[in-house]
Design a protein that fits this description.
Elements lengths: L1 E5 L6 E5 L5 E6 L1 E3 L9 E5 L9 E8 L2 E2 L4 E4 L10 E6 L7 H9 L7 E4 L10 H16 L4 E3 L12 H6 L11 E5 L2 E5 L6 H14 L4 E5 L14 H13 L4 E4 L5 E7 L2 E6 L15 E5 L3 E7 L3 E8 L4 E8 L2
Parallel strand pairs: 9-10, 10-11, 13-14, 14-15, 15-17
Antiparallel strand pairs: 1-5, 2-3, 2-6, 4-5, 6-7, 6-8, 9-19, 12-13, 16-17, 16-18, 19-20, 20-21
Helix pairs in contact: 4-5
């Protein structure tokens, strides 16, 4: 899915080519009647289909008057049995538009990955359409034009119209309400949940979703943490509802945000938990608990390399230093 905002929706399309310029497809864009920033703007989406896995393509936006962008490269998801590792970047609590966020975004250009996930609180302070434009797309455009972005929503994203701007600016897979969803990327099955919504309903859905996947790796992410020594602390109700499902289906990694710090939790019944809430809006003091292996109040992101038998997770701070890493076995 390619999305953009325009003031002239008529006749707009996406031209897809190979890197050497051979035409693959011309896809007419569809206008979505959702909240936009200014009168006269339209949110456009183009769905590119029948692409080969693990393949580099280029796309360009075009209209009746000619080209609207240069050619932009991207790579499709690998097949589930591909030999290369699946590499993802994850962060949360990011979108305030300040110096820390911009410094961390610069470091995100220094490591290799294929997709981006977010643990919520994307657009501070209130999740308005203007804050998404300024503090999300205005910061991460160099990444988003090439790489897919799969966010979970947080409590700040819900402050405006129950997260209607969140659902307007992203096209998320596999669900009608865009609150929780799952998708496959190579050997990994990813699941995004919504901690502003009913836990019991999501637990039932998650149980069925995980039971249906044949992918050997399972990574789940959302906003409020089931284990945390930060200022908000552990969400005991979430832990009670979801941890048994993680354990039953052998989820290897669970990522959360909400507390503005980094915390790596001692594996709980075979499940690794990490709080990554230092995405740039600021940090808060964090303590330790009986389950803590490492906790730091540091601006950071994490990126993972998922091989056939192990996942290596790296934690990177705002000046590009790796301050923690962990190896997570498949089983």
């Amino acid at each position: 899915m390619i999305g953009w905002v325009t003031v002239a929706p008529a006749g707009q399309r996406v031209d897809v080519t190979t890197p050497d310029g051979r035409a693959v497809a011309a896809v007419t864009a569809a206008r979505e009647a959702v909240v936009v920033r200014a009168s006269g703007e339209s949110q456009m989406w183009a769905r590119l289909e029948a692409l080969e896995p693990g393949t580099i393509y280029c796309y360009a936006l075009a209209g009746d008057g000619g080209a609207l962008s240069g050619r932009i490269g991207f790579r499709t998801a690998p097949p589930p049995d591909g030999p290369e590792p699946v590499r993802f970047l994850a962060f949360g609590d990011s979108g305030g538009g300040g110096a820390d966020q911009r410094a961390l975004a610069k470091q995100m250009l220094s490591v290799p990955y294929d997709l981006i996930v977010h643990t919520g609180d994307i657009a501070y302070d209130d999740g308005t359409i203007g804050q998404y434009e300024d503090n999300v797309f205005g910061i991460y455009a160099p990444l988003f034009q090439h790489l897919p972005f799969f966010p979970a929503s947080g409590n700040h994203d819900y402050r405006t119209l129950s997260a209607a701007p969140f659902r307007a600016v992203f096209a998320l897979p596999g669900t009608d309400n865009e609150k929780w969803y799952s998708y496959d990327w190579g050997r990994v099955h990813f699941v995004a949940l919504d901690t502003e919504s009913d836990y019991a309903t999501q637990a039932r859905w998650l149980d069925a979703d995980l039971a249906a996947t044949a992918r050997p790796w399972k990574i789940v992410y959302f906003h409020k943490p089931p284990f945390s020594s930060g200022s908000h602390g552990s969400d005991a109700a979430l832990r009670s509802a979801l941890a048994p499902v993680f354990e039953q289906h052998r989820v290897q990694l669970v990522l959360a945000g909400h507390d503005h710090n980094y915390e790596r939790v001692r594996p709980q019944n075979g499940v690794a938990y990490v709080v990554t809430g230092g995405g740039g809006v600021g940090t808060r003091p964090v303590g330790t608990s009986s389950f803590t292996e490492l906790s730091l109040d540091v601006i950071h992101f994490v990126y993972g390399e998922v091989g056939a038998d192990r996942l290596v997770l790296h934690a990177i701070d705002g000046v590009g230093a790796e301050f923690d890493s962990v190896v997570i076995p498949r089983e």
